Amino acid sequence: MTAIAPSILAADFSKLGELVREVEAGGADRIHIDVMDGHFVPNLSMGPVVVKGLRPVTRLPLEVHLMVKDPAKFVELFRKSGADSLIFHLEVLSDAGPLIRHVRSLGAKVGLAINPGTPVECLEPYLPEVDLALCMTVWPGFGGQAFLPESPDRIVALRKLINRLNPKCELEVDGGIDLATVPICARAGANVFVAGTSIFGSPSGPREATATMARIVAANQADSLAGSSVVA
Ligand code: DX5
Ligand code: ZN
Q1: Fewest C-beta in 10 Å: which of 81, 110, 185, 230?
Q2: Number of domains in the chain
């Protein structure tokens, strides 16, 4: 299964509800909400109030990406506000195990993210326990950055680990995902695609941009397309 997760960081916040309905109509599978604390990343973004505001607007799962230094402090609040899954970064924890289990005890799905500088092998001990592994394809902190060229090799390596340790675990990519980079990621083995600028900044509008991205992903899935050329 593949999924498109529009990141609202790139949305016009004066029209947030309307834009979320548009991506839902375009076939988005979940909504990605980027939380930044000004410490783990050099930027501030949104908090639980945004999750709470969006909850009645859409039936799609709300996925919260916590780019924060102390995720344990916030998981319960986001869950209570309506988050369906909580993703936190491996870099801020000496042992991610207790927080993984705590998030699961709250009834939410659990994701573990790594920055571009963290070897994918660092995720290995936790893969059997998580629902999703997020391989950042830019340094987190800002939308609209260019996809890092080392990313496809990292995705391939992570896909191998996931297939060996927990094939049900999703492999998500986030950062610089657009119509040119999404087929590369799909063919490398990613199955969940976060996209902000390329969806909410698309001249054809977020609904059409979501539908187009979903079509390209479907045409480039790693399993079904081994050995064939990229369709864009
Ligand atoms: C980056 C965030 C991303 C970001 C992606 O720090 O985690 O989710 O919104 O934005 P684009 O798609 O514009 O690179
Ligand atoms: Zn994100």
Answers
A1: 230
A2: 1
Kindly give the confidence (pLDDT) of every residue in the chain, 232 residues in length, as a single tens digit, with 9 standing for 90 and above.
999 999 999 999 999 999 999 999 999 999 999 999 999 999 999 999 999 999 999 999 999 999 999 999 999 999 999 999 999 999 999 999 999 999 999 999 999 999 999 999 999 999 999 999 999 999 999 999 999 999 999 999 999 999 999 999 999 999 999 999 999 999 999 999 999 999 999 999 999 999 999 999 999 998 633 333 445 5
The range of the structural domain enclosing residue 218 comes to 3-226
In-domain check, residue 15: yes
Q: Is residue 231 part of a domain?
A: no
In a domain, 22, yes or no: yes
**Ligand 1 pocket: which residues have CB below 6 Å?**
7, 9-10, 32, 34, 65, 138, 140-145, 174-177, 194-198
